[in-house]
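TA notes, week 10

Several of you asked for a full example with nothing omitted. So below is the full record: structure tokens for the whole chain, then the designed sequence directly under it. When grading your own attempts, check the secondary structure regions first.
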């Protein structure tokens, strides 16, 4: 296969569909491929060319509105006016780094760790979830003096070399090193939560043995608290608790990846408490700055004390005043508008409606949800995962101007995860589009 052909295969954009796109977009895609290379992917057979956002809505070049039922970064809404005003004001005052003394980042660290509790009293700031994961791995390896890491078999934890090494969802060409052992995620479609929890813990124990057989003691187990990339397998309580206990029993740390589940997504501030785990380290990012680059590792002081005694840390942009202003605005908006509680209440009613759609025999198997995060397994007549139909449903919804995606090991799990400003009046738009796309 030529390099050009393999580039096209790698990209989700099907050039044969170019005929259905505005000529200006076809040209832009060609420029993008030339200027940005082959690693990028576009969503949807007919990519959406967005120029503006507001609340739960994205607008394209024709001014058409799309209901955003996918993006978790703009947690308090696209172009949120409070975030916008605070960031703009701060840009006019000061934007520098954490090597100077300043109130803002300290006040934010105090506030956000106050929301975490569970002894996670300290915050170290970075710019992306990947950097947070990378730093958490460094801390875990430093504190334990070990190298081995256990992660789930379709996880995504980020783009740095160390984060990609525990991100098997990047596919078969992404190498997983010797010191990483992968374990299957729970399968809530076929296991009860109690069975899933026990089985996961026993897989952790086997993984420890496998690592040791290769000469690596386990430093950490890292799990996304909602197991998003594994097909949203973390929607039931206490599924991760025994696994966390198992890694501890073998002297490793538990890292809760809250990049997806943090900041209210599940109807609670964080995903890990309902899992009954007491993490040693927590990583957060994405919604933390509503699009401004703000991410963090949170830890119990004993771990940062140990790391910090031996190691200097500085991240040029991490925790700068502008990002922190966005972070404070996010916390204000979530709190003052009651968005976390609403995610729980509204999420429960949307989940009921989704179950109704599934029960109506639309080729949907299991339906899961936690707050405003939902997963529907698209299956064929024999009940097997049907990735092709899931992709068709996602594209039909895009054509109906409702944006969702698909994920999971078999790429058949519809992933619905709107900004938390998604409200009662938006639910029928989502549900009608979904029912229509499934019925097709
Ligand atoms: N962890 C999880 C669970 C994620 O979903 C992501 C991003 N999708 C990351 C880490 C990496 O975050 P970022 O893209 O900000 O580097």
């Amino acid at each position: 296969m030529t390099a050009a052909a393999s580039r096209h295969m790698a990209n989700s954009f099907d050039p044969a569909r170019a005929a259905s796109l505005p000529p200006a977009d076809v040209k832009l895609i060609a420029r993008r491929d030339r200027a940005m290379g082959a690693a990028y992917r576009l969503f949807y057979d007919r990519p959406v060319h967005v120029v503006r956002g507001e609340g739960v809505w994205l607008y394209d070049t024709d001014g058409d509105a799309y209901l955003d039922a996918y993006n978790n970064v703009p947690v308090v809404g696209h172009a949120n006016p409070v975030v916008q005003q605070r960031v703009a004001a701060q840009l006019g005052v000061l934007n520098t780094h954490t090597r100077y003394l300043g109130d803002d980042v300290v006040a934010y660290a105090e506030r956000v760790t106050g929301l975490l509790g569970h002894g996670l009293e300290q915050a170290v700031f970075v710019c992306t979830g990947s950097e947070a994961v990378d730093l958490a791995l460094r801390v875990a390896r430093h504190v334990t003096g070990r190298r081995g890491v256990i992660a789930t078999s379709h996880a995504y934890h980020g783009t740095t070399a160390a984060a990609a090494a525990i991100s098997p969802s990047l596919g078969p060409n992404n190498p997983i090193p010797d010191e990483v052992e992968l374990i299957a995620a729970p399968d809530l479609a076929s296991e009860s939560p109690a069975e899933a929890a026990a089985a996961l813990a026993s897989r952790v124990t086997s993984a420890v043995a496998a690592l040791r057989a290769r000469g690596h003691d386990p430093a950490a187990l890292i799990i996304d608290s909602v197991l998003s990339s594994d097909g949203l397998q973390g929607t039931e309580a206490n599924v991760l608790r025994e696994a966390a206990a198992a890694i501890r029993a073998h002297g490793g740390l538990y890292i809760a990846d809250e990049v997806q589940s943090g900041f209210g997504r599940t109807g609670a501030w964080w995903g890990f408490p309902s899992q009954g785990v007491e993490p040693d380290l927590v990583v957060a990012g994405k919604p933390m700055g509503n699009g401004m680059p703000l991410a963090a590792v949170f830890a119990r002081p004993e771990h940062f004390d140990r790391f910090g005694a031996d190691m200097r840390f500085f991240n040029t942009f991490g925790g700068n005043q502008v990002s922190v202003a966005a972070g404070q605005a996010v916390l204000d908006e979530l709190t003052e508008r009651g968005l976390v509680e609403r995610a729980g209440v509204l999420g429960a009613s949307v989940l009921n409606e989704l179950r109704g759609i599934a029960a109506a025999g639309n080729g949907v198997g299991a339906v899961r949800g936690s707050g405003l995060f939902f997963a529907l397994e698209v299956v064929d007549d024999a009940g097997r995962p049907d990735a092709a139909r899931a992709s068709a449903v996602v594209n039909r919804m895009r054509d109906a101007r409702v944006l969702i995606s698909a994920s999971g090991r078999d790429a058949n799990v519809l992933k619905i995860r709107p900004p938390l400003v998604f409200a009662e009046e938006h639910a029928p738009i989502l549900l009608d589009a979904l029912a229509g796309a499934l019925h097709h």
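Residues 241 and 276 are 5 Å apart (CA to CA). Use that as a sanity check on your answer.
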